[in-house]
Fold each of these.
Amino acid sequence: MSENKNAVLLIFTGGTISMSEDPSNGALRPIDFNRLQEYLPELKQTGIRIKSIPFLPLIDSSDVQPAVWQRMAELIQENYDEFDGFVVLHGTDTMAFSASALSFMLENLSKPVIFTGAQLPIGMMRSDAKENLLTAIEIATAQENGQAIVPEVCIFFEDTLFRGNRTTKKNAEHFSAFNSYNYPALAKAGVHIKYFRSYIHYPDPSNQLRVRKQIDQNIVIIKLFPGISQQTIHALLNIPELKAVVLESFGSGNAPRRTWFYNELKDATNRGILIVNKTQCSTGSVEMGRYETSLNLVNAGVLSGYDCTTEALVTKLMFLLGEYSSIDDIKQRLSISICGEMTVN
Ligand code: ASP
């Protein structure tokens, strides 16, 4: 065993998990990281070497920007050889976006990157922070024959490990805050942690980690609703510098059959804007051309987002637009699963 075995880097970005109640007035404030062991005395018993890097200042995840994803990716890159795994403590609100973004940015990842957070601050009595963090650390160091059991970007919450780019925040109240509607869980934590290996992606170990950090934010999400006006669609599709659209459609990928709608979409795709169809349903996939109401979209040059989450599609588009300049290269990569983010039949 090398001296680096069982070493985890904790990257604290912020969110509820990094907070504690001020006993004098009950207000939530960021914890002091030098006193982390006081909140989690169990950390010592794990025998795992733990180093923490806090973001200064800590941020609520609603304030996360692509620069934060880039910083996380850099920290993982800089510390990659020294640690067996990485745990990212992050607010739950945009955790699924960050985990999705990192899954694209960390190419050939062979070590676990486990995002976790909490619904109640770490310093509160009924907090879910302790269990979430300790189990995430255990998963980040779990190995078999010298290989990480889960070499993926994941989200661990309550008792379930999900593939990060398949996950969505589903609940603002319950401890079970996330779900992966279109892909099975990668592990369940009960008395033992049970890993479902056939669902875990194992990379070719001969490939080296490659961190790709270019992001292009010139995208927009358009969520359709009955009665959406031409003026709205026209304004959104003509945003200066716009490069891509996530079109949130109905059911299996359907949209109004109005001529003006078709013309607006066709005009945008002719101008080189990528439009990707994402169903508003949580479960299931876009099936372009199944109904007449999606045939128009095919004819207008709209691409299928298959069963991707909105979080994965948004970050995939930002990543592809940042990393590739040829629209054909981007379209080709939109039609395949890069790191398990969608099921293409
Ligand atoms: N607003 C918080 C955040 O996302 C909520 C949380 O941490 O769960 O940063």
Amino acid sequence: MADTKYIFVTGGVSSSLGKGIIAASLAKLLQARGYKTTIQKLDPYINVDPGTLNPYEHGECFVTEDGAETDLDLGHYERFLNVNTSQKNNVTTGRIYQSVIEKERRGEFLGKTVQVVPHITNEIKERIQIFGKSGEFDIVITEIGGTVGDIESLPYIEAVRQLKWELGDENALVIHLTLVPFLAAAGELKTKPSQHSIKTLMESGIKADILVCRTEHDLGDEIRRKLALFCNVKQEAVIQSIDASTIYDVPNMMLEEGLDTVTLKKLGLPQDGEPDLQLWNGFLKRHKNPKHEVTIGLIGKYVELQDSYKSILEAFIHAGAANEVRVNVESIHSESITEETIQNKIKGLDGVLVAPGFGERGIEGKIEAVQYARENKLPFLGICLGMQMAVIEFARNVLQLDRANSTEMDADTPHPVISLMQEQKDITHMGGTMRLGAWECDIKEGSKAHAIYGTTRISERHRHRYEFNNEYAAQLEQAGMRTTGINPETGLVEIVELEDHPWFIGVQYHPEYKSTVATPHPLFIAFVKAAREYSLAKEK
Ligand code: GLN
């Protein structure tokens, strides 16, 4: 018998049904029952990783400690489980093929014809079983991206079929997520799309063990019975996933539906007592019963798509709960901000966050927002590009350095206050070549950052190419922009803050990636607190 148990999550009928949240919720319940659980996402696209994707395509790119640029679902996994993921937790078709082709070039296939089956499927199976082999986990949940029936998902589905056969039913199970739509005209929930999607899965030789049904209305006994009969699962294995007001409710909803108990029963694992969700429920209680309210402006250029800034939005939820404050995030398109519109746009805000980003579009609006926050003593947090914009704004408007800029936006600027380091200048490939993953940072004593973190050595995750140009450090310091966080290895500036401002901090790294339900991020907690104080002062 294999030691590690494998759970595969597939999706049918439609995309965006929330497979990632269901996988994370089940993992949370299993973890809360004492099982060491991890989650993996297999993505069917051909990009080697999502690092080269525009956020409009699949939303934010999540960065892990080891510097992997990954799917945003890994962010959910970390936020739910409070366990770090790594490159191994996200695999794309591009990466699978890259590795098989490299093996072929090395001659590892000994003259054989290299084919989707068995070579690509073997590579997929190996990537899935890597966690079992390490012995670190009792249960591995693998989410297959895309929808069953898609051409590009076929090798993954075939790999799942083979693994299920090899490992045996007691060691591997398949959860299929479908949509049960409500037809308003008929006043009925419809099971046919689910039947078809289960049938498609069967054509690939896979029988689902558990059916999770996304629905807007309660399924009721009759629909559950029908789904069980026609989709070939036990009735207790028909799990309803009704729309939730927050994703953080889903673990409790799945507990109520018995998703964890059916899973454990099918895998032959003991299920003593109830999962320990005390900490989780404490968070939920604070999240749902805020005593105050603040509004923070999120200035970015991908604001049309909520998923583009996923980790930032979630970090505000964690920090809001920690402060018992509801944080309303108002997305403001940086391109809509000009000298004329700024007053109107920023009116009513208790804090401004200038978001990460790439390229020139919308940066003048970001600079305008920084200036407003600086001059009006509005709490300000700049993340990555947002920090760079804070430096540029200060250089232009306080130091009077005409046309100061980042060389990313203006290669010929007379004052490159943000520029490329030598190592980056020689890079020609875009994929995976930024400064990525966890880097240490020394915090200066007596700084605001020091008070917030309560320590002088931190580690935070990065994802950028351009850096604060140390040639300007002395000038900026003298005028009141303090460099309070320094990378001990490279001397690069990671944190800037303003002396003469109640709360103005720019960070070159991404604190949002490390905020979880169990450990809300100190910078976000402090920022929300500062916004709360600002709003109180306004009321007076
Ligand atoms: N475009 C900037 C850089 O590459 C900032 C990147 C970011 O905000 N993640 O340095």
